[in-house]
Amino acid sequence: MNFASDNAGPMHPSVLDAIVKANTGYEMPYGNDTIMDRVRDKIRATFEAPEAAVYLVATGTAANALALATYTNPWDTIFAHRVAHVEEDECGAPEFYANGAKLTLVEGAGAKMDPDALRQVIIGTGQKDVHSVQRGPVTITQATEVGTLYSLKEIAQITAIAKEYGLKTHLDGARFANACAALGCTTAEMTWKAGIDMVSFGGTKNGCAGVEAVIFFDPEKAWEFELRRKRGAHLFSKHRYLSAQMEAYLTNDLWLELGAKANANCARLVKGLESIDEAEIPDAPAANMVFALLPRAAHRRAIQAGAKYYLFPADASLDGPDDDLIRCRFVCDWSKPDTEIDQLLALLRG
Question: Is residue 6 included in any domain, yes or no?
């Protein structure tokens, strides 16, 4: 009963088979393998972007930080939501890879950047004043850190404001597949057609061992990204094992199938949580992650029976009044069986 993270789940068999198949003979290193040629073509076709520059790295943090750094000067600031992944969960990596650039945080309900708030923050950020940081790119997390989604209209509103001030936009898509499946849209509609300039297209949380694609719809910065990736120690020598994962992930839209399955698993869990009288769900989940408030007694039963998930705060005690509500997060991946979801719900109900 592991609901801690979709990172805890297994590889999809097709991805594992692709790695094994790639482990034969010799391939050129550093992204010059023949598999990567096919991956590049597949991603360009998937995103309807024939001129896009496409690269692979092994972690979401590297994808986000290196992509943002490519469009950020050290004296710039990156505009992000207050609970964006780049702010809460990357240990300052965006600032580090951008050589000391800072993050400027923007408010918004449901972990989604409010367009008016973004505009006001941009206006209040220095332009030519040497004493102030300068305006840098805007980044959004899709799906968000609380499991909500930006609609296509909301993405377009954010990017329109960014473009009004000459700023580039980045989409952190660690859970890109979950978002795309939930919205029922194409990859192009959720990215460049909505004004996004660069994307971190996640595979690790959705059935891969460790691979993320970085996609620039305008290849202007492609060479700089290659230099940053190498200098940042994220250029794999035996790159074919990244390529093999991504090729399998893209084949027959496996990425979308797995994202939809993870979402369906979460929907089953949410339906069960809603049937518990004491449970509260502050933000309506739209993808594969749900935050809930549950009585301490429910957490005690589930965790003592072996269920794994996160409590907030992390040091929340299982000792104390049974009816105190404690916040928690449940995440479902593509492989979660119904029986495991139902087992957790039974424990929470008592």
Answer: no
pTM for this entry:
0.95
The amino acid sitting at 235 is L
Q: Domain for residue 165, yes or no?
A: yes
Contact between 350 and 301 (Cβ < 8 Å): yes
Structure tokens of 311? Answer: 């409590």
The CATH code of the domain that includes 309 is: 3.90.1150.10
Local confidence pLDDT in tens for the 350 residues of the chain = 999 999 999 999 999 999 999 999 999 999 999 999 999 999 999 999 999 999 999 999 999 999 999 999 999 999 999 999 999 999 999 999 999 999 999 999 999 999 999 999 999 998 778 889 999 999 999 999 999 999 999 999 999 999 999 999 999 999 999 999 999 999 999 999 999 999 999 999 999 999 999 999 999 999 999 999 999 999 999 999 999 999 999 999 999 999 999 999 999 999 999 999 899 999 888 999 999 999 999 999 999 999 999 999 988 999 999 999 999 999 999 999 999 999 999 999 98
Q: Determine the residue type at 152.
A: L
In a domain, residue 3? The reply is: no
Residue that terminates a domain, selected from 252, 285, 311: 252
Structure tokens at 312: 């907030």
Q: What is d(CA 3, CA 275) in angstroms, rounded to the nearest whole number?
A: 19
Structural contact between residues 329 and 309, judged by C-beta atoms closer than 8 angstroms: yes
The candidate with the shortest Cα–Cα distance to 74, out of 91, 90, 97, 92, is 97
Contact of 173 with 200, CB cutoff 8 Å: yes
How many domains, in total, are found in the chain? 2
Same domain as 261, residue 247: no
Alpha-carbon span 77 to 100, nearest angstrom: 9
- The whole-angstrom separation of Cα 221 and Cα 225 is 6
What domain range is 323 assigned to? 255-349
End-to-end CA distance of the chain: 16
Give domain status of residue 185, yes or no: yes
